Amino acid sequence: MAAMRPIKSLYLLGFTPFFVGSACRITSPLVHRDAQQQCFPYSSSTSSENFGFRIAASFSAKGHKFNPKIDLFSFKHSVQRQAETPDASPKKRPDSGQDAFFVSNIGNSRNVAFGIADGVGGWSDSGIDSADFSHGLCERMADIARKASAGSTWELIKKGDFKARDLLQKAYNAIVEEKKIRGGGSTACIAVGHSNGALQVANLGDSGFVQLRPNAVYFASKPQTHAFNTPYQLSILPPKMLARSVAFGHKPLSDQPRDASVTDHTVKHGDVLVFATDGVWDNLSAADVMKLVSRYMIGFNGWADGKDGMAASDQLEVLTTEGGIAKERENTLQALLAVAITGEAKAASENTKLDGPFAREVQKYYPGEDWHGGKVDDICVVVAVIVKDDGDI
């Protein structure tokens, strides 16, 4: 849940399973020395190899107990060309609170679109549930990606020109034009992954993502904020609220998809991408996530020592296929990672003694505030493990 509040008042502001960013937001010895040079043009000429995005998501609503057997969605590799279509009615939404996510193939191509959105909770003061906005945004993005198999859009896909920010813009336009959602706001961090290894990410607000490689945070997105704890956010303002703001001389926050930061990357076999809302990043640093991911990747032999050091193992294909991990539900490496990160963030958010990133920021900007421990919030995580693909899905 994204936030927008003066520190004194501490208003809490801000998945539907269909399954950006610039310089690193964290300095750490785990951050790869080439992190600033790792972005590449988003085009179909990136690589002659094919890659699969093995994706899973996990989530937990604020104030609810995390159940890793239920609070999990796996985008099955065997049906990656098909669309996952949810029932988005509030009663049937997963237990993710105002956080939402989507994962979808793009048309009938081997490319994928995925990401997260974080509803701004402060709208509840005006009787508006931003979960409708964040879930609605993700539903539209998945629907647009899924139907992008004809005409000019298909030509863009084949050329590698189906852009992340354009997807966000089209989804936002659809919500505004439909007029089914009367108000609300959300941050968003979304990606378009090409089977040739090109990855484009559009990030608006303080959700974000990291690209991990053995022993390194290769890239970490930078949050977009207007001020401390006031993230960029898409929104729909009811006419009465807008008129009231103008009458009192206030300028309401209403950022646009064009304001999203866009970064282009190249992925390779063994990369791990972690997209998450601020329920994760306020409680775990990129270095924390790297250590946790390394523990599971090495422990399950997804990454292994070789003649040139730590690298992706030859077992990664099996480990990321359903049943590759001997567990009832989290039976792929990507599902295991998503659940582990969500569980770790949940525990950190409820720890009143160990200061997390948010607590350290409060102490930095507002030293008079006695804020310690984690920050309880909705949590949503999407994990993609990149696997060299023979094209026979």
What does this structure look like?
This protein is α+β, with helices and mostly antiparallel strands. 25% of the residues lie in helices and 24% in strands. The protein contains nine helices and 16 strands. The protein has helices at 131-146, 151-159, 164-178, 239-247, 278-281, 286-299, 316-319, 333-349, 357-365; strands at 51-60, 72-75, 99-105, 112-119, 184-193, 198-204, 208-213, 216-220, 225-227, 230-231, 234-236, 261-266, 272-276, 303-306, 309-312, 379-388. The strands form four sheets. A six-stranded antiparallel β-sheet has the order 2-1-16-13-7-8. A hairpin with a 6-residue loop joins β3 and β4 (112-119). α6 runs antiparallel to α8. The protein is globular, with a radius of gyration of 20 Å. The model is unreliable at 3-45 and 80-87 (pLDDT under 50).
Portion of residues in helices?
10-25%
Radius of gyration: 20 Å
Q: What proportion of the residues form beta strands (DSSP E)? A: 15-25%
- Based on secondary structure, the structural category is alpha+beta
Apparent shape: globular
What labels describe this entry?
393 residues, six-stranded antiparallel beta sheet, 9 helices, 16 strands, disordered N terminus
Summarize the structure.
The chain has helices at 131-146, 151-159, 164-178, 239-247, 278-281, 286-299, 316-319, 333-349, 357-365, and strands at 51-60, 72-75, 99-105, 112-119, 184-193, 198-204, 208-213, 216-220, 225-227, 230-231, 234-236, 261-266, 272-276, 303-306, 309-312, 379-388.
